[in-house]
Design goal:
about 70 residues; mainly alpha
């Protein structure tokens, strides 16, 4: 997959995650979905950590944007 395609997919994933508002979910729904939500969050964390480590392994630094 080309770099531009990868970046577009990452940006789409960030956008989709930005739309998630768990605080608006009813308590029962959150409890029902907790197992799936937990699995998704762990998978995301694993993937993001792997990508970040691959970047760092090449001697580059990942910079956090500072809110204005």
């Amino acid at each position: 997959m080309r770099t531009n395609e990868v970046m577009a997919r990452l940006e789409a994933a960030v956008s989709a995650l930005g739309d998630v508002d768990v605080s608006a979910w009813p308590e029962d729904t959150l409890k029902e979905q907790l197992g799936e939500l937990s699995a998704a969050l762990v998978a995301l964390d694993t993937s993001l950590s792997r990508i970040a480590e691959e970047v760092r392994a090449r001697g580059l630094r990942i910079e956090e944007s500072v809110p204005a």
